[in-house]
Structure formats: structure tokens, C-alpha cells
Amino acid sequence: MKNDLDELQQVAQAAAAQGQRVDLYAGIHKGLRALMADTLLAVGRMDCDDALELAQTTQRVMELLDFCRSHLAHENNFIHPALEARAPGASGVIAHEHAEHEREIRLLGDMCSALLQCAPEDRARAAATLYARLSLFVSHNYEHMYIEETAHNAVLWARYTDAELIDIHNALVASIPPQEMMFAVRWMVPWINPAQRAAMLGDMQAHAPAPAFEAALELVRPHLREQEWAKLMKSLGL
């Protein structure tokens, strides 16, 4: 597997060698990695004998699962059709993994429900099982996202211009409900680099309604270090 992944990395680097290309995966995948890691850590440290903490933590898992389900749908509906339109069969392996991830999402949701309903003496065992299964889901997704960022990007960059990729991105973003978009902003913006952060919020500043842009800034402010916030304000001219 390592040799295959190294080869994919080389392919992607070669495809982008002529300059920085539009990357449909970069920002959202950073956000997903952060959200998955944070949720997994929360489950690992959870006091399952504390009813409030148990409810709050399982709710966080359900929020992660809902977001992952939506993310799969966005890729299935926008990116995979773009791949298939110009490179038939290119999305086949990842599409199969998406179906597997959907089954895992349902299973993890059922495990959360069972944990909330089980007898107090059984909670520790059920929580440990949920943690182990969630850790597998996270690890599978980390590798899955790497394949998309290398193999899929290589195909997209070879067959689409940046302007066409931006059109795909804009159509995808336009399909996202406001509440989901704000959740995505909360997890993406703190964990992307300053240049990506400035580009994303600069686009919002230019095109989103002012109240939505201001709400996004308010949402991410507590999750940025002072230096990061200062850099962002300077890049936005604020």
C-alpha cells in the first residue's frame, strides 16, 4: 500500500508542477480531519457515568456522522460526475468506498443510540466499542481522503481548467444549506493555513450577504490564535 500511495503522490505533484491548481478537496478535507480527530478524542475521554456528558458527546458523534453523510453526497453529486464525464471509470473505487462509509455511518449512529439506552453497568463496554469502531472509521477516511487528493486531483487537473473547477466548486457550495455551511466554516477556517483562510473568507466577504460574513467571523474567532486573527483581519482589510 505504501508504494501505491507514494506513486499517487508523485502523480499529483507532477500534475500540479506547472503551478498551483484549484483543489476541490483541500479545505473541506482539512476541516473533516480536524472534526474527526476532535470527536474521536472526545469519545475517548468521555465519562459515560455522567448523563449530561454522555448525551453531549454522543450528539457530537451524530453531528460528525451527519456532516460526513452530506459530504459524501456532495462528492457523489458534483465531483464524481465531473470525473466520469471526462475520464469514465475514474471514480469507481472511491464510489465503492463511499457506499461502505454510508454503511459505517448507519452502524455508528445505531451504536450511539444503543449507548444512550443501555443499562448503566453496560455503558463502559459500549463506550469502548464505539470508540474503537469510530477510530477505524476515522482511519479509513484519512486514507480515503488522501486517495481523492492525489488520484482524483490528478484526473481533474489533467482534464479541467481552473475556471471549470471553480464552476464545479461554486455549484457545489450553492447547494449547501446555510446551517450546514456554517458548520463547515466552523471546522474549516481554524484548521486551514493563513492563505487558504484569507481566500475563503475573502470570497465570502465579496459575495455573501454582510450578516452571513459577520456571523462567520464571529463563529471562527474563538478558535483562532491572536496572531492568526490579526493576519486574517489584515488580509481582509478590517
SSE order and pairing:
Blueprint: H1 2-15, H2 26-45, H3 51-86, H4 92-117, H5 123-159, H6 162-174, H7 178-188, H8 194-207, H9 210-220, H10 226-236
Helix pairs in contact: 1-5, 2-3, 2-5, 2-7, 3-4, 3-6, 4-5, 7-9, 8-10
Query: Which value, in Å, is the CA radius of gyration?
Result: 19 Å
What fraction of the residues are assigned to beta strands by DSSP?
A: under 5%
Unreliable runs: none
| Biggest sheet details | none
Order of helices and strands: HHHHHHHHHH
Characterize the overall form. globular
Mean pLDDT: 93
Task: Provide the helix percentage.
Answer: over 70%
Number of H- or I-type helical stretches? 10
Tally of strands:
0
Q: Indicate the structural class.
A: mainly alpha
Cα distance spanning the termini? 47 Å
Protein name: Hemerythrin domain-containing protein
InterPro entries: Hemerythrin-like (IPR012312), Hr_FBXL5 (IPR045808)
Domain Hemerythrin-like: 23-149
Organism: Variovorax rhizosphaerae
